[in-house]
Design goal:
mainly beta; four-stranded antiparallel sheet; globular
Length: 98
């Protein structure tokens, strides 16, 4: 089973991919982190460059939502910008921060 989340943030595209074998974090098409092997939960780390040239850190947490669901949570500079629960919701819109 493969699950993909796409988030737009300050002109950047953040893509998180979860499969049975691994998790990957892409920013603007560039692979920034990857975890291989089965785990009940994973953390991925990366960064974005804002339009003003500042660098902001990305932290992604992926874990079990119970009954086969998967939850993806994305923080940028320690601020929650996205939370998805594939069991309860088909799609949640990203939280936009200006």
């Amino acid at each position: 089973m493969k699950k993909t989340w796409k988030i737009s943030y300050k002109g950047n595209e953040i893509v998180v991919v979860n499969t049975w074998q691994n998790e990957q974090l892409f920013v603007n098409g560039e692979l920034q982190d990857e975890q291989n092997g089965y785990a009940g939960r994973s953390r991925l780390w990366g960064h974005i460059e804002t339009r003003s040239g500042e660098r902001e850190s990305i932290k992604v947490s992926i874990g079990s939502g119970g009954w086969g669901g998967i939850i993806c949570v994305v923080f940028i500079d320690d601020q929650l910008v996205f939370r998805s629960n594939s069991k309860r919701y088909k799609e949640l819109k990203p939280i936009r921060r200006n």
